[in-house]
């Protein structure tokens, strides 16, 4: 049965399946469509600014900044400033289209490099691996570096437009062209925009810190594996190998958590009674998640150690004949105790949090159970009460470890099913078994429920993102309709200011997604840098460990290299999907409008053709808005279908070979997973 479960699990965690799962888990956060919807509005607003600039002109240079303007080129002419905004916006959208297409092409080649890297990793000749693997990884790093530069260039272009509009609004205030209620609105909008910038800056700082922690985690994993190897027990070698597998996966879990952080919104937009957008600092108000994420990355190791005890329990009795090592005259729990102590020391270094408190408590309980088991000897057998007390402790520890692991999966955005890395899979196959006992059945059921809850929550979060977008739809449509009803005589200065504010908001939303792109590629580059600078050096070291296991430190390092390369490939795959969507939307619905804007800026405003072109631009932007929303709806339906298909794939594959489950046990597992993955107490995350 164990080998069947392992085979089906392997079939469910192929590289292609895990890439799709990563995309599904990241979809609510990396949802590009939500940021495409303001694009037509941005273009339409710039078109109206061209139209407005034909009105009365005036100077905004009456009370300039002491150091002069940083972005405004023509402060003596408000009309010229509006045209400067339009020009900057036109260049930003043009660069976005060109650079995103290059990103699409670059990321499309990553899977080929990944395949070549895996081929070299499977090679038994270490010299070939050392000679050729770095070239494949370096090719991925080069792509990442180039994409960072491409995405960063676009993000800065949009930022230039936003800064220009903000400086223009501040200049209008200083020149005393804005009064009363409108003055307060403009001041608040400028303040909100500065909060956005501060929020983005803080998130970037946290992201950089998290990437550094991820790099350190790779080094620690290698050192921890080496120390753990020295105490691998005889008789339960497979337990040791499974702990090594969980240790290797911890690096990937941290990577998932950092990736999720990179996809976070830097602010949350809501609507007040006046339908104006209010920026609320959300992520930056919370404590730093990095420490908690590192603690939760140990959850799989803790759960596996807690499961080990259950291998020696049959109903309410302990199988001492298996647990007690007659040759060495002691129970086979020394290795488990050492691992709990190692994890305890690791968690103890982290910042104070509920995650830390819970993690330390689990390790303490595990250590205490081991110490109690050590008091056993065949000469002094335990009475029924002592045995039952220990069994209750073991079962309680296992249940708490399941809850901790479920919370860890949610916190780190990590899939319930993780692929066994190639060298570990090979070593397990050579050992003739795939799992360390009867708990493989319960573990499979537990992972099924985790997957079900993850995908369910993923769909709910994605729907919430689309609801936010639907909430903005009316406001965006109303703005376009208002602009269509304006004529040059009706447009006053207040109308111009309101359009500038809306333009700054819309451009800010588009810019935010480009900030994410920069972070994504920074992570890919960082992963490969860590692989080349740290992991490959460890791989090149001579293996001096005295061991009886076939799975040594060099094979463990190979698996670490695989995990890192696979993760970099996963991110590139997600970005390739996003870039493809953007290019499709840009080709169909944006670039023609941007070209029309360019034409509008060069036309004579006194000729009837100007008004015709303006009307054409307005209508096409409204059409683009509608078509993008149709695309969003189509993507939503595909997303729901994909999550449903994935769940059926998991259930169909595993449930077909699992014996019928006790309904009470199934209900218990569901309650553990749901309670752990849906709790909203923010203190549990930091």
Automatic annotation (TrEMBL):
Keywords: Coiled coil
Stretches of the chain forming a coiled coil according to its record: 183-231, 441-479, 607-641
Full protein name: Uncharacterized protein
Gene designation: LOC101161192
């Amino acid at each position: 049965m164990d080998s069947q479960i392992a085979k089906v699990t392997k079939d469910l965690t192929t590289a292609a399946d895990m890439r799709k799962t990563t995309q599904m888990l990241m979809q609510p956060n990396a949802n590009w469509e939500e940021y495409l919807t303001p694009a037509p509005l941005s273009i339409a607003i710039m078109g109206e600014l061209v139209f407005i600039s034909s009105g009365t002109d005036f100077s905004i240079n009456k009370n300039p900044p002491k150091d002069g303007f940083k972005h405004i080129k023509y402060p003596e002419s408000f009309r010229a400033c509006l045209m400067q905004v339009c020009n900057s916006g036109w260049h930003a959208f043009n660069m976005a289209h060109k650079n995103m297409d290059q990103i699409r092409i670059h990321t499309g080649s990553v899977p080929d490099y990944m395949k070549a890297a895996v081929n070299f990793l499977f090679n038994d000749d270490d010299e070939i691996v050392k000679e050729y693997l770095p070239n494949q990884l370096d090719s991925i790093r080069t792509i990442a570096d180039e994409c960072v530069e491409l995405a960063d260039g676009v993000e800065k272009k949009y930022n230039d437009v936003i800064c220009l509009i903000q400086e223009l609004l501040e200049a209008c205030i200083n020149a005393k062209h804005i009064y009363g209620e409108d003055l307060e609105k403009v001041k608040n909008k400028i303040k909100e925009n500065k909060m956005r910038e501060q929020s983005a800056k803080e998130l970037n700082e946290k992201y950089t810190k998290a990437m550094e922690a991820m790099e350190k985690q790779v080094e620690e994993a290698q050192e921890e594996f080496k120390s753990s190897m020295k105490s691998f027990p005889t008789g339960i070698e497979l337990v040791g190998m499974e702990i090594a597998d969980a240790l290797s996966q911890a690096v990937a879990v941290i990577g998932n958590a950092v990736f999720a952080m990179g996809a976070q919104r830097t602010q949350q937009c809501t609507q007040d009674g006046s339908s104006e957008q209010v920026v609320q600092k959300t992520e930056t108000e919370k404590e730093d998640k990095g420490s908690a994420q590192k603690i939760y990355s140990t959850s799989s190791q803790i759960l596996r150690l807690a499961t080990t005890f259950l291998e020696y329990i049959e109903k309410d009795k302990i199988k001492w004949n298996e647990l007690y090592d007659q040759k060495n005259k002691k129970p086979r729990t020394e290795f488990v105790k050492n691992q709990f102590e190692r994890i305890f020391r690791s968690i103890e270094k982290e910042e104070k949090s509920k995650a830390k408190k819970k993690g330390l408590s689990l390790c303490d309980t595990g250590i205490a159970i081991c110490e109690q088991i050590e008091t056993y000897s065949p000469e002094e057998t335990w009475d029924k009460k002592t045995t039952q007390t220990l069994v209750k402790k073991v079962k309680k520890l296992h249940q708490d470890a399941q809850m901790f692991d479920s919370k860890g999966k949610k916190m780190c955005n990590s899939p319930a099913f993780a692929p066994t890395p190639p060298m570990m899979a090979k070593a397990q196959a050579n050992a003739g078994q795939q799992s360390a006992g009867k708990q493989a059945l319960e573990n499979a059921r537990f992972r099924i429920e985790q997957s079900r809850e993850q995908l369910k929550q993923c769909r709910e979060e994605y729907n919430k993102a689309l609801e936010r977008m639907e909430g903005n739809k009316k406001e965006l449509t109303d703005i376009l309709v208002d602009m269509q009803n304006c004529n040059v005589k009706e447009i006053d200065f207040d109308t111009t200011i309101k359009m500038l504010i809306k333009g700054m908001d819309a451009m800010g939303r588009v810019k935010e997604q480009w900030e994410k792109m920069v972070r994504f590629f920074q992570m890919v580059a960082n992963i490969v840098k860590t692989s080349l600078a740290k992991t490959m050096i460890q791989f090149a070291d001579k293996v001096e460990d005295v061991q009886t296991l076939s799975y040594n430190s060099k094979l463990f390092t190979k698996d670490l290299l695989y995990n890192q390369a696979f993760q970099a490939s996963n991110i590139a795959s997600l970005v390739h999907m996003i870039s493809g969507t953007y290019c499709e939307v840009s080709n169909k619905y944006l670039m023609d409008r941007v070209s029309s804007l360019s034409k509008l800026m060069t036309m004579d405003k006194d000729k009837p053709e100007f008004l015709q072109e303006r009307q054409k631009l307005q209508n096409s932007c409204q059409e683009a808005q509608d078509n993008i929303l149709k695309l969003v709806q189509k993507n939503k339906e595909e997303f729901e279908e994909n999550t449903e298909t994935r769940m059926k794939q998991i259930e169909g594959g595993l449930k077909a070979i699992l014996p019928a489950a006790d309904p009470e046990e199934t209900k218990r597992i569901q309650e553990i997973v749901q309670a752990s993955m849906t709790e909203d107490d923010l203190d549990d995350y930091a």
